[in-house]
């Protein structure tokens, strides 16, 4: 009985220590910030790349959001239908303006992506053109004992995993 109780105490202590060393408690996994959740981390290659906003852009967006919010509050609180229609038209124009800016930004991003695609296609064509040359070079290095996948070429080919 004493052995079981001692073992149970040791296991409880070990589990408590392990849980205390984690960056976030087990009951908060999946909540809050994604980088704090141990089980919820997304690999770097799968993360969506978003353009970073400067402080000026953030301030401008915040001011625009506040202006739209004030305009909507004014429309909701206006009892006069004529004035309410005018305020609604102003709000629509403001929203139309921001939608046009968003569309222009998306067009810029699409143009950049298309330029990147053209560069990638050029690299692909270059790779196809030099395919046989690269294969011959790799074959020569493999047969001479060099490592064809390393830049130097002076290192002999080793068996096993690459050294880190």
Element order: H for helix, E for strand: HHHH
Q: What's the total helix number?
A: 4
Nearest-integer average pLDDT: 78
Overall number of strands: 0
Shape: flat
Contiguous runs where pLDDT drops below 50 for at least 5 residues? 34-38
Straight-line N-to-C gap:
50 Å
Q: What portion of residues is helical?
A: 55-70%
* Quaternary structure of the protein: single chain
Q: Radius of gyration from the CA trace?
A: 31 Å
**Strand content range:** under 5%
* SS content category: mainly alpha
Largest sheet: none
In short:
With 164 residues, the chain is mainly α.
Label this structure with key terms.
164 residues, mainly alpha, 4 helices, 0% strand
Describe the model.
The chain is mainly α and 164 residues long. 65% of the residues lie in helices and 0% in strands. The chain has four helices and no strands. The chain has helices at residues 2-21, 55-77, 81-129, 131-144.
């Amino acid at each position: 009985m004493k052995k079981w109780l001692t073992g149970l105490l040791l296991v409880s202590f070990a589990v408590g220590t392990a849980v205390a060393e984690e960056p976030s408690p087990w009951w908060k996994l999946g909540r809050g910030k994604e980088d704090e959740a141990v089980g919820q981390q997304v690999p770097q290659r799968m993360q969506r790349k978003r353009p970073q906003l400067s402080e000026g852009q953030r301030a401008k967006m915040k001011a625009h959001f506040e202006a739209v919010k004030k305009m909507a509050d004014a429309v909701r609180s206006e009892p006069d239908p004529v004035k309410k229609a005018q305020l609604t038209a102003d709000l629509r124009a403001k929203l139309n303006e921001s939608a046009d800016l968003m569309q222009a930004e998306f067009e810029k991003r699409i143009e950049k992506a298309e330029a990147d695609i053209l560069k990638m296609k050029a690299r692909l064509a270059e790779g196809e053109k030099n395919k046989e040359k690269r294969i011959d070079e790799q074959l020569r290095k493999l047969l001479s004992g060099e490592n064809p996948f390393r830049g130097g070429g002076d290192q002999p080919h080793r068996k096993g995993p690459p050294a880190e």
